[in-house]
Amino acid sequence: MAIRKIVTHPAEILEKSCKAVVSFDKKLTSILNDMYDTMIEFDGVGLAAPQIGLDARIAIVDIDDEFGTIEMINPRIIETSGEQTDPEGCLSFPGLYGEVTRPNFVKIEAFDRKGREYTLEAEGFLARAIQHEIDHLDGILFTTKVSRFLEDDELKGVESE
Ligand SMILES: [Zn+2]
Catalytic annotation on 133? Predict the structure, then answer.
């Protein structure tokens, strides 16, 4: 396991649609383990493979709730509803935070590290983090969705993804 370097904006890898994972092998396991270590090291609540320079549809989310670490391989959003507007940050944009409006509920299909397909439903902050990471896999950055950037004195408790 190892801590990887975070790719910060601007970088080409952050703005492209990533390739689907086809092999659920040891390499994937080691990428996921490294992504977890890297997310924890940099105090994030999520991380997508392009943020460590990898062109692959792999993302993790851990908001320290009962879901634990959610590993999403080739995830797809199949349903959304509602709306939420809250501050958001990103490990690829150190120190930058803004308000983003997203659906409040999301239902996804994805594969775990063993290649088993699963369905997951989430709402609120977890739904926000999941959508932020899946956006990364399509080269969509949160800055394109920000309605208002936040000043330093508004940042208390905002976490990065
Ligand atoms: Zn991000």
Answer: yes
Considering the entire predicted model, what is its pTM?
Answer: 0.97
| Annotated active-site residue in 71, 88, 133, 161 | 133
d(CA 128, CA 15): 19
Amino acid symbol at 70: I
Query: How do residues 10-63 score in pLDDT, each as one tens digit?
Result: 999 999 999 999 999 999 999 999 999 999 999 999 999 999 999 999 999 999
Token pair in block for residue 145: 């969705």
Q: What pairing do the DSSP bridges indicate for beta strands 58-61 and 70-81?
A: antiparallel
Please state, in angstroms and rounded to a whole number, the distance separating the CA atoms of residues 159 and 139. 20
> CA angle at residue 69 from 149 to 126, to 5 degrees?
40
